[in-house]
Design brief:
There is one protein chain. By secondary structure, this protein is mainly alpha-helical. It has a single domain, classed as Up-down Bundle (Rhopdopsin 7-helix transmembrane proteins). The chain is built from twelve helices and two strands. A two-stranded antiparallel ribbon has the order 1-2. Strand 1 and strand 2 form a beta hairpin. Keywords: Cell membrane, G-protein coupled receptor, Membrane, Receptor, Transducer, Transmembrane, Transmembrane helix. One of its GO terms (cellular component) is plasma membrane. Its main location: membrane.
């Protein structure tokens, strides 16, 4: 049974709602940008990128993941439009939360696949030459989708509708009664869905940067381009993924502490809750930024793996990693 909310919790909930009233226009803009950018990226992959290299396979799956979640943003924007009220029933509530989780961890896993693909193509081109083929990337992408669906499936259980005054809330985490079971699940997601991929991505990009910087055949300008791409890849974690998982679990911990001993006060909870809401906006903003990441930035890298006479400096596997739009 849930412990009654401490004194002042109603005022704190009002502060939370006041903050969330400003989310709907942001979500509306994100929907327009994300839908246009990822739909165009998918069209470009299908119509103009032939044959597909391994990096394009991962980037295509990333674009599909982003587009699927973008289609749910109009419902989320309407939900946050004052007064905050979910009008679409429990099934769509669970589906929206499930799609958010699938997009979040699908994005992380496919970005990790892209970084590992670049690592193999640049650091170990002879090792993967003739061995790393698009069919391998398709199999790995299928495995990634299964893993993402498995990690996200518990959200279908935890997400529920909860009355709040005259309105209905679609919970993004869990009810107070389910919180003791949801917090360990959230910690597992942070470790497996964010921490491990971040470590793999960081190690991959560090090895890429070291290999490129040590190569005597690459100009300083080309090295800066590679460094810029590496920086953007790491920044996605530093700006959105890592803060989101840290703040989500801290927010859940404060909720649980408040339920257990009544120690939660608005002064402590509101800054964390507001920062958590902001981190969710930054995570969702990634679906707008990904087309730029595997489009313009990848194009800027294509030249560095080619020799002065138009011949490749590296092996074909290296081109396969760098020419991919991811």
């Amino acid at each position: 049974m849930a412990v009654p909310a401490p004194a002042g919790q109603g005022a704190c909930n009002a502060s939370f709602s006041a903050f969330q009233e400003h989310l709907w226009p942001v979500l509306t803009v994100e929907f327009v940008l994300a839908f246009a950018g990822n739909a165009f990226a998918i069209y470009r992959f299908v119509a103009h990128e032939r044959p597909w290299h391994t990096g394009i396979v991962y980037s295509f799956n990333l674009a599909v993941s982003d587009l699927l979640y973008a289609l749910s943003l109009p419902f989320l924007a309407a939900y946050y439009y004052p007064p905050k009220h979910w009008r679409y029933g429990p099934a769509l509530c669970k589906l929206e939360r499930f799609l958010f989780s699938c997009n979040l961890y699908g994005s992380i896993f496919f970005l990790t696949c892209i970084s590992l693909n670049r690592y193999l193509g640049i650091v170990h081109p002879l090792l993967v030459h003739g061995r790393l083929e698009p069919r391998h990337a398709k199999l790995l992408s299928g495995a990634a989708w299964l893993l993402v669906a498995g990690l996200s499936a518990p959200t279908l259980h935890f997400s529920e509708l909860q009355p709040r005054g005259n309105c209905t809330e679609c919970l993004g985490s869990a009810t107070d009664e389910q919180l003791p079971r949801y917090l360990p699940y959230s910690l597992l997601l942070a470790a497996v869905g964010c921490g491990l991929p971040f470590l793999l991505t960081l190690l991959s990009y560090a090895a890429i940067l070291r290999t490129v910087c040590r190569s005597p055949h690459i100009t300083p300008l080309e090295k800066r381009k590679v460094g810029r791409l590496v920086s953007v890849g790491v920044a996605l974690y530093a700006v959105s993924y890592l803060p989101y998982h840290t703040l989500r679990n801290l927010n859940l911990h404060l909720r649980q502490r408040g339920l257990q001993d009544g120690a939660l006060t608005c002064r402590h909870a509101l800054p964390v809750h507001s920062a958590y809401q902001l981190s969710k906006i930054l995570v969702t903003l990634n679906i707008c930024a990904h087309p730029l990441l595997y489009g313009a930035l990848a194009d800027s890298m294509r030249g560095w793996c080619r020799g002065p006479r138009g011949q490749d400096r590296g092996q074909p596997a290296e081109n396969m990693a760098l020419q991919a739009r991811g």
